[in-house]
Amino acid sequence: MKLIDTKNAPGAIGPYSQGFEVNGMVFTSGQIPVDPENGLVPEGIAAQAEQSCKNVSAILEEAGSGLAQVFKTTCFLADMGDFAAFNEVYAKYFTSKPARSCVAVKTLPKGVLCEIEAIAEKA
After folding, report:
1. Is residue 96 scored above 80 in pLDDT?
2. Catalytic residue positions?
3. Side-chain-facing half-sphere of 1: CA atoms under 13 Å
4. I need a labelling partner for 97 at 20 to 30 A (CA). Which of 23, 71, 85, 89 fits?
5. pTM passes above 0.90
6. Sign of the torsion angle spanned by Cα atoms 91, 105, 48, 11
């Protein structure tokens, strides 16, 4: 196992890591919309989804992978009413259309609107 740690994505806010590489696969922790330089992205679902996607991408890149190698994501929304707007942003980043689960949850860390985690093949 190889720990993944990059300054291009926010550090963990609890007892976990940004991700791990195991047997040629990369597993990211769920990424919320925190800009690693400026903090929490307060805007609506589109801006928050955008930052969450960028954070996942940064972790994958640090591991020598990328969004094109993602084959599974799990997405969490604070409000399923944001599903369509979230999908518009998500589709720009995950163009290979990986397998996905998307669920609404009661709350997310720091009161954000979305969180994304991914599993990818190492490039």
Report:
1. yes
2. 102
3. 6
4. 23
5. yes
6. negative
